[in-house]
Amino acid sequence: MIKIAFDSIYAHELPENHRFPMLKYELIPGQLIHEGTCSRDQFFSPTRCSKQHVLLTHSEEYVNKLLNQALSPAEIRRIGFPQSPELVNRELIITQGTIDACGFAFENGISLNVAGGTHHAFADRGEGFCLLNDMAIAANYLLSTKQSKKILIIDLDVHQGNGTASLMQQEPRVFTFSMHGGSNYPFHKEQSDLDIPLADGTDGPTYLAILSDVLPKLFKEVQPDFVFYLSGVDILATDKLGKLAVSLEDCKMRDQLVFQQAKSHGIPVVVALGGGYSPDIKVIVDAHCNTFRLAMDIFG
């Protein structure tokens, strides 16, 4: 049974100007259950990630600041969320969800997190609504426990995974691939193992042609035994922050390309959702639900 981590950052717990982007985390599970794509027993609630596991990736000084609510005003502004124990707790739970999903992916081929993809978090700081880098922490967990020898992180959010790239620059066992809007946030890009910056207005056929060419080569050259996939839907033409021109159907095809490569090579994959900022929440939810629908179809 394909398992899905779920513990949302509830919109009502956040300031009004941050509520809308978080609504999707509450709506996606309900939609998937309502339509019959998933059953309630596929969802699991993670516990809180241990400090020991977080310190495989983040500096102790930064982690202590988070735990003790000791971030400076400048650090809080960089993150974009107000400082609160509840937010740190949820971030630790979401991170544990990605770690737990790894075990389920080994069993079932795939596991998903209805959150995560916090790829702007660095070793010593957070930014861009990201406090902890869940995929980097989970990757380091797999390496430290010798469950994996070579990991491929596929980041297809419209924003470069700058934190992930920085964290893994000195780790040869993790290959980072980011295909993102070249002129989009973050304006200072870090260096992934492979970066493909896209021009503003890149359409779906162009996007898919590039990805179709790159993915088979990556799987062949990297030869990963585990894949993390960040499936942000802020590549959509409707996204107010994205600057690309990808359709809902083309976004779905993107997920299919990733899943089929992993499936054909017999490589377990963990999926985190990443960004999505279309004005219509229904578009965001539908785009993310497509990822789950495809996962059930291909790996179910």
Q: Can you tell me about this structure?
A:
It comes from Aquirufa avitistagni. InterPro entries: HDAC_classIV, HDACs, His_deacetylse_dom, His_deacetylse_dom_sf, Ureohydrolase_dom_sf. Belongs to the histone deacetylase family. Keywords: Hydrolase. Pfam families: Hist_deacetyl (PF00850). With 300 residues, this protein is an alpha/beta fold. It has an 8-stranded parallel sheet, with helices on both faces. The chain starts with a strand and ends with a helix. The protein has 10 helices and 8 strands. The chain has a single domain, classed as Arginase, Chain A (3-Layer(aba) Sandwich), CATH 3.40.800. α1 (16-35) crosses α10, α5 packs across α6 (134-144) and α9 packs parallel to α10 (281-299).
Topology:
Layout: E1 4-5, H1 16-35, E2 43-44, H2 51-54, H3 60-67, H4 73-79, H5 85-108, E3 110-113, H6 134-144, E4 151-155, H7 162-168, E5 174-181, E6 194-198, H8 204-222, E7 226-230, H9 248-265, E8 269-272, H10 281-299
Parallel strand pairs: 1-2, 1-3, 3-8, 4-5, 4-7, 5-6, 7-8
Keywords: Hydrolase
Protein name: Histone deacetylase
Family: Belongs to the histone deacetylase family.
